[in-house]
Amino acid sequence: MDARYVFLYFVTRMLTVNSATHSLIYIYTALSADLGLPGVHKFTAIGLLDGKPFDRFDTDNPRKTPTTNWARQHLTTEYLDKGTQSRLSKQQWFGMAHTILRDHWHALCGIQNQYSALSFLTDCAAASYSPR
User: Second label for 12, Cα 20 to 30 Å away, from 22, 54, 96, 128?
Assistant: First the structure.
């Protein structure tokens, strides 16, 4: 079995709009290899507003796409284009992070990988940001 890494990355922001507090959360998941399973993408990003998905991006559809009627009606092309560039950048970052972490893990653990495969490996990373 090939070595496969999974990253989960959370970015959280609390917003105040018209005296109401809302939550904005972005969830990023990345795999080190395409598993070839339907609906499972090498990289996926989902935006949640108050816990409900409103946009998504994945390797099969590499464009920030609104998923609700209100998002389709109110999100501008400029916002979606900037979001697409941001998601492409994060996808690239996760790819580099996989390589760096794999190499460091091998070096720190002293693994001699004769068969260029590991039997099992799982990694998980989480981060958040809150201005308060």
Answer: 96
Domain boundaries, the chain: 6-109
**pLDDT recorded at residue 24:** 86
DSSP-derived secondary structure letter, 42:
S
Give how far the C-alpha of residue 51 lies from the chain's centroid of Cα atoms, to the nearest Å.
Answer: 16
In CATH terms, the superfamily for domain 6-109 is MHC class I-like antigen recognition-like (3.30.500.10)
Q: Give the residues across from 45 on adjacent strands.
A: 28, 57
Name the residue with tokens 């996926």: 44
Q: What does the alpha-carbon distance between residue 56 and residue 26 come to, in Å, rounded to a whole number? A: 9
User: What are 92-113's pLDDT values in tens digits?
Assistant: 988 888 778 777 766 666 555 5
Residue 26 to residue 89: CA distance in whole angstroms? 14
CA pair distance 26, 11, nearest whole angstrom: 5
Largest CA distance in the chain: 60
Q: Are 48 and 28 in contact (CB under 8 A)?
A: no
- Residue 46 · residue 55 · CB < 8 Å: yes
